[in-house]
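Researcher: Here's the sequence for the chain we discussed earlier.
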Amino acid sequence: MKKPRTVTLLCSGFGLGLYVPGLLIARRLQHLGVPADVCVFENVLLPDKLDQVLRSKQACHRSFPFAQMSARMPMDMTRTVDEETIDKLLGEWAAEGRHDFLVFSGHWLHVVNRYRDKVHPETVNAEIVYVDCGLPPSWVSLKHFEPDYAAGYREKWIYDTETMKLAAPIAVGTAPPLTYREREHRFVIHGGGWGMGTYQSKIPELRAQGIPLDIVVYEREEATGGAAGDRFFMMDPSWSPWQRDEAGGHIFPPFGEVVQGKPVKFAHRESYHELFDITRTSRGIIGKPGAGTMIDSLASATPLIMLEPFGEHERRNTEMWATLGFGVSYEQWKQADFSLEMLERLHENLMAARGAHADFAAQYRSHVG
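Model: Thanks. This is the structure I predict for it:
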């Protein structure tokens, strides 16, 4: 029997929205018997450019207006990479006979273009994968400099924005969603992988309503002054998605509960991210409509209470989730007096939509053989 070829998934650590979805697909492909390897763009950056990413990460967390402005500024990423690292990577791909690629970040495309030129274009099977309903910043930047960047590539959208339907959902774990009545009376609130957005400003109002919160903080100092029913969680601040483990692979974010006076015990699962276990037992997710949050919402059938989006791509995500009846804006929920009945209807819509389509990895496996 012919051995399956390795699929290379080209991700980015920016905000985790182009990292966690790629890692989820990689794990699912591996479960289906397809070898898969994840590469993260930040690993090919020049050291000073990587330092700049870390500074931007902190600035985006502390100022959402700064993050919004940064998203609108095109960047030519061809000038930020370490050419020796790129040459070494291309040599490794060629030596291993890499042919199949899933490209999640626009920053990678010039690297794939160079590889195609190196090993013959007709033998490289590369697909551009969009996990949002619009183009996220890396693709917007690329389009600014190269309007026809996708020529010669297949493009795959997770969501069909023309018909406003699901197209290729990303699976998370194997456990079926809990019914709404089985769930704890708790709500997850967070700002995505980089802790961005207006979520912190909503916490006092939610506490005043007596709503118990599972708050994902970005820095340990933020895990103070909670109400009696609140819990705090955080990712390991020493971890970055471009770090590899001892086996040379990438892992889901180490995650743990923050309890005052105790060290945080960070842990990570092999097949999906730890936050998902909290999300799937919750009544709702309160946060901006990022790619990873939408994946969690659908996979767990947990309604999304949507805060201000980050960029045009998340604005279109908001439209999709509202149109499908999977989410509601925070202001609408507030006007409905924080109604659980409203959220239960959204949960039922999510439950009904699940299983209508094969997941992305299963679809991909079927057409690559």
